[in-house]
Design a protein that fits this description.
By secondary structure, this protein is mainly α. The protein is built from three helices and no strands. 0% of the residues are buried. The model has no long low-confidence stretch (mean pLDDT 90). The chain has one domain.
């Protein structure tokens, strides 16, 4: 496995763990930082805000995936051409 794929997986695992921890904190807290008691509606709003905040890392990861896929296909094609030319 190439380094770029390993880094991509490490990045994905980091973002998934971070999202899971923050979602658990939001859903399990009884009172937020301002002292307001959290109702299910307020927890849902906070969770939606968290989802919106994680859209940018998601877009970056998808672009990174596409770049990795394109480079992998290009490398496979080059290796096939080398094997035929020998």
């Amino acid at each position: 496995m190439k380094r770029r794929w390993i880094y991509w997986w490490i990045g994905n695992i980091f973002w998934i763990i971070t999202f899971g921890i923050l979602a658990a904190i939001i859903w399990l807290r009884e009172v937020d930082g301002t002292g307001v008691t959290q109702t299910p509606e307020l927890k849902l709003i906070a969770f939606i805000v968290l989802l919106i905040a994680f859209i940018l890392p998601l877009i970056i990861q998808v672009v990174w995936l596409l770049v990795n896929l394109r480079k992998s296909r290009k490398n496979k094609a080059e290796k096939r051409e080398e094997s035929f030319s020998i």
